[in-house]
Amino acid sequence: MKFPTVFSLFLIYGLLIPAANGQSRISGRVVDKQDRPIVGANVYLADTYDGTSSDTDGNFNFQTAETSNKELIVTYLGFSEFRQEIPLPQDSTYLQIVLQEDAFELASVVITAGTFDAGEEGKREVLKPLDIVTTAGATADIAGVLNTLPGTTTVGESGRLFVRGGEGYETKTFIDGLQVMNFYSPAAPNTPSRSRFLPFMFSGTSFSTGGYSAEYGQALSSALILQSKFLAPQERTDISLMSVGIDAATTQVWEEASLSAKGQYTNLDPYLGLIDQQLDWIDAPTSWEGSVAYRKKISSSGILKLFGNFNRSAFSLNRTDLLDPELKTQTSITNNYGYLNAMVQEVIGNDWTLKGGFSYTQNRENIGLNTARVKEREQGLHSKLVFSRQLSGNAAVKFGTEYFNRSFLQDYRQPDQFSNRYQFTEQLGALFAESDIYLSDKLLARVGLRSEYVALSRDLHLAPRLSLAYKTTENSQFSAAFGHFRQTVQNEWLMRSPDLAQEQAEHYILNYQITAGKRTFRIEAYHKRYRDLIKYTTGADQLPQQLSNGGSGYARGVDLFWRDNRTFRNVDYWVSYSYLDTERDYRNYPSAATPHFAARHNFSVVYKHFITGLKSQIGLTYTYGSGRPYHDPNRPGFMEERTPAYRDLSANLSYLFRDNIILHLSASNVLGREQIFGYEYAARPDENGSYPGRAIRPPAPRFLFAGIFITFSPDAVLNQLPNL
């Protein structure tokens, strides 16, 4: 790993931040006409280098050594420029500044094509941060709630995000702009995995189902962009007693810093002893997890964020052989995972904002298959530096650079027989630039360009991105997006053939959205074209041969979304529907076909009701997916069979037992419907010439959860309801 890259990034940061050594202090607050704080407004003295930007509360504070009167200038995209002369020198000056939206009302036009936002600052969000943790059936898993949105397909045997005809690996996750490798925890074969990170860590979530910003790369289909929280507002200690384990968390707060730490132990053995399982567990899944988050204000406009996550998990089970039911394969997995994220943000000069940082991931996995042993190790470094500036009242620009360094090692050993060892190191450098330009009072254009160089394949390419938004009424608009997207092929292929080129996709998106009176309606059509997908043949040993980038495919469809938390008192609900038409000719497919993870129709309804008198919140989620294709080698044709339709009704209940104590209950598939995710078949026929197979089902008909969540805080009224 090239750690000098990381240190040089922070060295650049240190050289760019000017020292504040003035004698006059200028402070104040920037708000809009509704008295809402404006975050990130540029505040500076004309013809000087003295200035700052407003913080998350709209406040600003800086010093100057100027000895004559100067004009104070405040600018923010979509608002008219503010100017006022300040008499200098003097000890201190405080100003309450109200910015007026300019004549074009530019701030009301935003890019919505392909993006669902859940944040604390967005004007057109269609999700709230709490939705991530209060949706029935999602079990407080980020991917779980996003799978209730249009554009996704529920793949129950995986648990990951499959977006608009794309595989699970085509969605990448970023925390504060930095990529997260191995976002999901390991799971037993054909059982769902969960994301490693808890939703309460994040203040904002942007889920892009296509056409995302030029700042982000290495994702063919989708980008999940998570923004971590800033300073913690209050000290607290949380204890959680759950049917699957226990955890404890504490937060300490100082004047300009906060520190949060969490430890969690999970052991499914008691739960599995109560609920019958279809899997033959030897050692039930267990895990130890710890995380630490440190936040520090480094100036009136700057912040430093540090986050670390560490996890160890293990399990083992027996799997029955398809050809010989008396023969069992003992499968075990032990996983050790570590993730570190460091980010700094600051205003430099009068107009520029700098954001830079790095993330480091290490994932070690030991896999046992009877006597065979497989050791895998993956580690990666991602560093990024981004500069942004509001050029005027109707334009903004952002550009930057990033560097990826990733290594992978797989060591396979079969005692007294043979061993294989694969490894590679991949380096990737990227430059990107993007500008938001208001062409009129109703039309916004976002123009971007991304360039990447991949050292392994010696591949240099350009990826253009373009988005448009046109405001039709005060509450509605059309958006469109186009872009080229590339992604390095999966480890299992790259380790065998390091010179493979990146896979490619082109996105075309058209969107209409109206948001008014706590109601949102959205319809979006898309077309996606794939090129350079992995293609190979298989021999008698079922191993891939003749690897190439000869695959291709397409995905097209329509997504619908409706949300309403106004019509019914204390009720919030949303409805999603997706139509998907997709085919691929990739991997060892003999011809183009719909892949096994794609369902033509997906539908979900999410309902939440807060019952004030009972101090309770109930939630219901209904999910439907039409049958997915699978290949039965005993029948003619390829991928011609279909699974039964997927139907699931999940429910949860949160009861406020005391101001600081919550009782939470949840259950998936409460009706106990049989769910079949697909079928798996033996690699060779039996003595009768048939290929034995079996259905892929969940480990149990339902998953039940119970927990008591206790919070200790100075005022004794905080609780964990926002996290449930």
Automatic annotation (TrEMBL):
Subcellular locations according to the entry: Cell outer membrane
UniProt entry keywords in alphabetical sequence: Cell outer membrane, Membrane, Receptor, Transmembrane, Transmembrane beta strand, Transport
Entry-linked InterPro entries: Beta-barrel_TonB_sf (IPR036942), CarboxyPept-like_regulatory (IPR008969), Plug_dom (IPR012910), TonB-dep_rcpt-like (IPR039426)
Domain TonB-dependent receptor plug: 138-218
Any one of the GO CC terms: cell outer membrane
Protein name: TonB-dependent receptor
Membrane topology: Multi-pass membrane protein
Family: Belongs to the TonB-dependent receptor family.
A Pfam family this chain is assigned to: CarbopepD_reg_2
Entry annotated with the keyword Manganese: no
Broad class of where this protein is predominantly found: membrane
